[in-house]
Amino acid sequence: MKKLLAATCIAMSLASALILPSCDINGLNSDNSGGQNGYSSKKATYSKFNTLATLVVTDNFNDDAVTDKLLSLNEDVKAYLDSLENSLSTSVESSYVSLFNAADAGATVEIDEMTYTILSLACDMYEYTQGYYNPAVYYSVDLYGFTPRFSNYTGYADISTKMPYDRTEEVNKTTYVTRGIEPDEHYVEIFRDLASHFGEIELKEEGGRYYAVKPDYTVEGLDGDTYSLAIDLGGIGKGYAVDAVSAIMSSYGFEYGFFEFGKSSYSIKGSHDQSGNWNMSISDPSTMGWTDFAQLELSNICLSTSGDYEKAYSIGDTTYCHIINPMTGCPIQTGIASCTITGRTSAEDDALTTALSAMGKERAVQFINENLSYMQVVMMMRNADGSCTDIITNCPDEIKVTSGRIINTVSDGKIIL
After folding, report:
1. Cα–Cα separations (whole angstroms), residue 162 to 91, 158, 311, 330
2. Measured on CA atoms in the order 345, 351, 356, 359, is the torsion positive or negative?
3. Are 386 and 372 in contact (CB under 8 A)?
4. Distance, first Cα to last Cα, the chain
5. Alpha carbons 145 and 187: distance in angstroms, whole number
6. How many CB atoms lie under 10 A from the CB of residue 398?
7. 217 burial class (0-12, 13-18, 19+ CB within 10 angstroms)?
8. CA-to-CA distance for 352 and 239, rounded, in angstroms?
């Protein structure tokens, strides 16, 4: 029996006394209430990569010159996100990632500098996490029904998009592709095997032009269909965009605000009004994000979060989420319901939260202790009955627990279970 869960991103709220009910001014939402020293906040939203991004800037908008700067910033952010989507999105057939995916095994594909830079970072994070971050799980993600062709609300896709490995069922006398039926184990295994060759991608720069060479490796489906390596850089790409937009904000002289992409990647600048930190609430996975389990006070920092309930569905007693464990080729069943990291860059944090979620408790704790002791890491564990009560963190004194309990201690910056 199929049961669909709400397609909900992990919600993390940034609470500020200055972000109030707003009206629309030149495409930017604004509170007109003023604030300390004349400061107020304005917000803009953007729809990219099948999700939303939000820009919030706090400044003295009583000054017309500051408002003009914000309008210019807004246009630059729009242009940058358009460029990013046209380079990386698997939903854009002409994007460089789509062209790479469509190329034959062993082919050399010309890409732009943006794709080259982000793919290079993805390769570095693949090595750094021993393969637990792997953007080549593209076919596994599609196999389990988490690509854009599947509706987040019904789990169905139109039959015109059917792939040889899809499961189908009849709905309302019409046949649709569906993610509510267990996939064939043959495809689970061959797509896991294919993704394991991500590290064989070769990147080249020659005369100011950029190239990616696909691994000369293929796998074969049950009906003889051949598949070469395919990638999705959307996750790390969103984090990279957060870092880039933060830099654009700085270039305009804006010191306060934040940019977030998909409610999972954030770059926080300063405090909300020169008087304190932003208050970050981390959502409780067991309540589908309607309540929080912890809060952090943050300023001038990047962070990312991943969760096992973001885009999820159930078949019988088993729940499947969009995070694929590259070692199994299946959605994660590691017991880590939510993972949040602050520090480094948003792009790196995105890769790290995904990797830690796939590692599972013991391996994740070991990795944190060996590599991330200088960062803030907060993980919410899922119990066998689906509830979430246990928190593991290397910063117990810096978080306010609002639900659940911290089950570890910290000694010399290391987590002790």
Report:
1. 15, 7, 20, 20
2. negative
3. no
4. 38
5. 13
6. 13
7. middle
8. 11
Quickly tell me which residue has 């393969």 as its tokens: 131
255-to-55, 59, 127, 248, 297 alpha-carbon distances in Å: 13, 8, 34, 11, 17
Q: Residue 298 forms beta bridges with which residues?
A: 278
The pTM of this model reads: 0.90
Rounded Cα gap, residues 182 and 323, in angstroms: 16
Please answer whether residues 193 and 326 qualify as being in contact, where contact means their C-beta atoms are separated by less than 8 angstroms: no
Residue 43's CB is within 10 A of a number of other CB atoms, namely 16
Give the integer Cα–Cα distance in Å for 89 and 185. 28
Question: Which residues is 56 bridged to in the sheet?
Answer: 43, 258
Q: How far is 352 from 373, CA to CA, in rounded Å?
A: 13
Closest to 77 in 3D by CA, of 45, 101, 103, 99: 45
Kindly report, residue by residue over 121-167, the tens digit of the pLDDT: 999 999 999 999 999 999 999 999 999 999 888 889 999 999 999 99
The token duo for 262 is 């998909």
Nearest to 41 by CA among 27, 28, 26: 28
Beta bridge partners of 292: 283
- Locate 139 and state its tokens: 């076919």
Look-up of token digits 């729940």: 319
Q: What is the pLDDT of residues 329-384, one digit of tens each?
A: 999 999 999 999 998 899 999 999 999 999 999 999 999 999 999 999 999 999 98
User: Edge to edge, what strands does the sheet with 2-4 contain?
Assistant: 2-4, 312-315, 318-321
CB atoms within 10 A of CB 244: 20
Helix (H, G, I), strand (E, B) or coil at 36: helix
